[in-house]
Design a protein that fits this description.
Helices cover 64% and strands 14% of the residues.
């Protein structure tokens, strides 16, 4: 309770991190238990399928060095996100939610790298032969959190610019 009083939204946001992490890990467990590697199951025709793959690369399958490089990069990113979350001013609900989602997703994929040496991906979208990269819930959390942060800070910057313009005209 003491931590909630001091850190407020940042500590509450950790519940979002926990839920995101649990959903990610449960979904990956389900895929590994119920599907064979490279198996594809139609969910909504050819548009949406579950396709179980192992991703040894970074986001969207990019290969930027080896497994240790990806793990080191993930640790640096986790520390950075934790510092940002810790330093949020009180009342920063949406930035806290965005950072919490990024944190949950990053931890989820890092757990995969530590346990399996690869990331478990299975969400497969596309039309016909044109497919998006196969991804997982952790990737979704990172993407949604990043968009939320960009949107929140974009609005904040826009509001600050409007405030500056109003102050300039009142002189």
């Amino acid at each position: 309770m003491f931590a909630l009083l001091i850190f407020g939204d940042s500590v509450r946001a950790l519940w979002i991190t926990a839920v995101a992490l649990v959903l990610d890990q449960l979904s990956k467990w389900w895929v590994m238990e119920s599907m064979h590697l490279y198996e594809s199951v139609s969910v909504i025709g050819h548009f949406f399928r579950f396709t179980y793959i192992h991703n040894p690369g970074a986001v969207f399958g990019l290969r930027l060095g080896g497994a240790y490089f990806h793990l080191a990069l993930a640790v640096v990113a986790l520390v950075f996100v934790c510092v940002l979350l810790w330093r949020l001013p009180p009342g920063s609900l949406w930035p806290a939610v965005g950072l919490a989602l990024v944190l949950g997703g990053a931890i989820g994929n890092m757990i995969d790298r530590l346990r399996f040496g690869v990331v478990i991906d299975f969400l497969d979208f596309g039309v016909g032969d044109t497919r998006w990269w196969i991804f997982n819930l952790a990737d979704s959390w990172v993407s949604v959190g990043t968009v939320l942060l960009l949107f929140t800070y974009g609005l904040q910057s826009s509001d600050e610019a409007d405030d500056d313009a109003i102050q300039d005209t009142s002189k």
